[in-house]
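call fold target=FeS assembly ATPase SufC
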Amino acid sequence: MSNQLLEIKGLSVHVEDKEILHGIDLEIKKGETHVLMGPNGAGKSTLGYALMGNPRYEVTAGAIRFQGKEITREAPDKRAREGMFLSFQNPVEVPGLTLGTFIRNAMEQRRGARVRLWDFRKELEKAMELLQMDRAYGDRDLNAGFSGGEKKKAEILQMLLLKPSLAILDETDSGLDVDAVRTVSQGVKEYQKDRDGGLLIITHSTRILESLQVDKTHIMVDGRIVKTGDASLVERINRMGFEQFLDEADQNSLCPERMEDSDGRKNICR
């Protein structure tokens, strides 16, 4: 049986008639943890949304294969049932639907069978304890009134209970304090114990990676993967930042002019 989990070949993606991703190639094997890093505006989140099938992100070239199956045109809900999971930078609030009910329904869709309430509560409470979440959150409306940290913990909670084959974590550590990052990292480490499950961690920071085992690191600049390496590449980013990769992209004429991102750095290709 093939060990290949995700295979992306020549993927180009448009958003509102603008090409954001240009010929992305990426492969993730079962049990591997990959990190996708890059400056703000590089296209990292676009890749996550495209993999999950968000209709706003139009695939104009290339293909996505997941667990040996072509899924380039599949609907998001079908990808989720097949074992793909995407956490969001800014999880939406859903009044009228409790966190517990949402997760239990999603588990039943994923498994194709009813999940007994008693068994579910035991799993839920165990995962909430790991993430240092008050059990009361399970009976609260999904993300409604949650702090930024609790929203991110709720995303990791879903990942732990759904047990996806591939988890894509998009800026999961953004906006979190040191303690919250440590707790979220513990949840990710717990997921890593399932050595068949793959991880794609999208980030421009290295905080969440400090206690995780990373197999491969990819650097994205201007919608292209410009460098792939092992975990040592994360340390190189820590020391030197992304300037070296931006300079290389400019030298290769991939970006004729840059504009400032929200942090005042000239990272975004015009």
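return ok
The chain is about 35% helix and 30% strand. The longest strand covers residues 4-15.
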